[in-house]
C-alpha cells in the first residue's frame, strides 16, 4: 500500500476525527502538522483548511470526501450496511457539520476563545455570550434526541463514523466554563461522551487539542 499522509493539526476537530478512525481501523499514516492557511495547508487544500489526505498521487480535502475514500480504498467498517443505521449516521454528521458547528462551536466556543485572548473579564464574556449560549443549548437539546437511547454508540449498537465526527467538538465543548449547561441540555449525548472518552483512540489523540490546552491553562492558575 502506498504511503498515506494526513495534513492537519492536533487542535483541528476534523483532523482528530480521521486520526481516531485510522487508529481504530489499523490504518498506518504519517501526520504532518501545520496551521490553517499556511503555505503547506494551501498546497493541499485550495481554501487553506485542515485536514487534507495524500495517498500516492491523490490529494483529497474535505473530511466527508476523505471518509468516503477511506471506506472505498481501506476499510468500510465504520459505515453501516443496514440502511436505517446508515441514514441515521449521515443525518447526525450533517447536523453536526451545520447546526452544531455554526451555533455551538462558532457561536459560543470560538467567540469565548477570542474574548479570553483579548483578556475580556469573565463577567463580560458571560454577558456577551448569553443569547448565543441559549441558542446553542437548544441545538444541543435537539441533537440529544437523535442519540440512540440504548447505545453504547450514537447510532445504537454499532460504532460508526458519526461517533468519530461528533466526539472531538464535544470534547472541546465540555472543556468550556459553560460545560455543565450543555451537559444538562444533552444528557444522552454527555452519557455517550463519558463512555467514549475512555477509548484508546480518544486518549491517544487528546494531546494539544483545545480541551487539553484549556485543561493545562486551568492547572497552571
Automatic annotation (TrEMBL):
Pfam assignment, any one: GST_C_2
Residue runs in coiled coils: none
GST C-terminal domain mapped to chain residues: 82-219
PANTHER family: GLUTATHIONE S-TRANSFERASE OMEGA, PTHR43968
Record organism: Rhizopus stolonifer
SUPFAM superfamilies linked: GST C-terminal domain-like, Thioredoxin-like
Protein name: Glutathione S-transferase
GO cellular component: cytoplasm
